[in-house]
Every structure is written in C-alpha cells, then in structure tokens.
Amino acid sequence: MTERSSKTGTSSALGCLYGIGVGPGDPELLTLKALKALQRAPVICVPQAADRPESYALSIVKDYVKPEQEILRAPFPTDDAEGAAQVWREASEMVVERLKKGQDVAFITEGDPMLFSTFSYVLAGVRELCPEAPVEIIPGVSSVMAAAASSGIPLATHGQRLAILPAAYGLDDLSEATSNFDTVVLMKVSPNIVKTLADLQELGLTGQSTYVRRATTDREKVIRDLNEITDEDLDYFSLLIVKGKAKKRQAKERTK
Ligand SMILES: C[S@@+](CC[C@H](N)C(=O)[O-])C[C@H]1O[C@@H](n2cnc3c(N)ncnc32)[C@H](O)[C@@H]1O
Question: Which of the chain's ends, N or C, has fewer CB atoms near its CB within 10 Å?
C-alpha cells in the first residue's frame, strides 16, 4: 500500500512512515526498495523483544545503517499484553513526533511487515495520532517463503490450499487445519514445540512435517525427521511445514 503521494498534498510538512520488511535473515534478501528507503530515512525504529539481547531485524540490516541515523528502540515484553500495548503507544508517539518534524521514519521488521508483525501496532497508533501522515509499506521476504525455499517444499500447487497458523494451536486446531488444507505452516512454534510434536504424532503427521530453523542464515537447519529435533535445535526463529490430509479427503469425497 502506498499513501506516499499524500506527502505532496496537504501533509507536505510531515515525514513519511515506512514499514520495511527486511526479510528472514540473509541481508541479501533485502529488496532494493527496502535498502533505499532504509538508507534515506534519518530515523530507524526498531522493535525488540525485551527477552532477546538484540533486535533480529536490526541485526539483518546493521551493515547498511549509517552512524548519523537515529535509532528509536521499542523494547516490548512478550508475556505481558498490556505492557506491550503501552510500548506500542509510546513508540507511535515517538514516531509521530519525528514525522511532525518532517523526518521520515523507517520501521524495520523481520520478514514481511504485514504478517505477524509488530509494525501493525505502530501503524495503527500512527494512524490514530496523525491520520494525515503518509505511509509506505515495503513488503519483505517472509519466513514462510524462505522456509519453503530452504526445505525445497512447495507450499501449494494448482488448486491446493495453504494455511498459516500462529502459536496458539492445539490438537483440535491442528486436526481441523490439516484436514482442510494441503499445507499448514505453524509459526512461533518454539514455546509449544513439545506439545506440538506430540499432537502431530497423534494425528499421524510426523512423517509429513518438516522443521526449519533460522532459514537463510548461517544457523539454518532443516530437519525432515522430527524425532531428530534436539534442545539445541529449538529457536524462536523456527517453523514447521506440515503436509495436510486435504488431498486424501478430496479423493475420498470424489469417490462418494
Ligand atoms: C512475529 S513472527 C514474524 C513473522 C515475519 N513477519 C515474517 O513475515 O516471516 C515470528 C515467527 O516467524 C518465524 N520466523 C521468522 N524468521 C524465521 C526464520 N529465519 N526461519 C524460520 N522461521 C522464522 C518463526 O516462526 C517466528 O516465531
């Protein structure tokens, strides 16, 4: 989405908020558009989970950031929704302050900014506080696409269905999703990995599931036999690609 053109209209004094997807980890997967916008902006806003030592998004682009660029950090708690909401309010206020000074702000986010991204919260806050501020969203290579490429597993081919689920899934959700979709991608899998692996086993899906850790980085690991996952392989930046039973269901329906 581009609302950048409004900058040339009534809101010409305002800076532009850029939501920039910086990709899954390999800096070479940054788009040219992302790189140019990042390097032009005098201010870079960086989301950072408070329980992690550094921002993953910033670590991806660190070689492209110039010393004169201001870094606005937004350290958000991962286990406290109210605390996180407060951080996003404050971050939105800091961003709007810069926009009102005519400065462009680049909000960087791992993967794509429109998929499970903290950018959504700041975008909502900025729209509320300063609806006339121009916004440009630059898509990034999502971890979903990166994991498919790293594992060589096509996510969907002709007529197939793909589902992407966040962390909160249980046996029933998994059973339903894998019955209705040909491929199910389970994101934010690490906090629930033990339960999820047990659920996949119970559903008879272990043999058709692949674990991908830190796709496109030098710590990338693709595990095709889930029984081989060890504690060392566990990482927040990991996901599971599960081939569902939709095909079997469709074939059964056709023979009815
Ligand atoms: C908050 S979501 C962000 C998703 C991101 N906006 C995207 O488009 O990929 C974080 C989750 O994305 C997945 N993820 C992010 N980077 C990854 C990578 N390099 N390899 C595997 N999974 C990754 C993990 O499931 C992680 O828990």
Answer: C
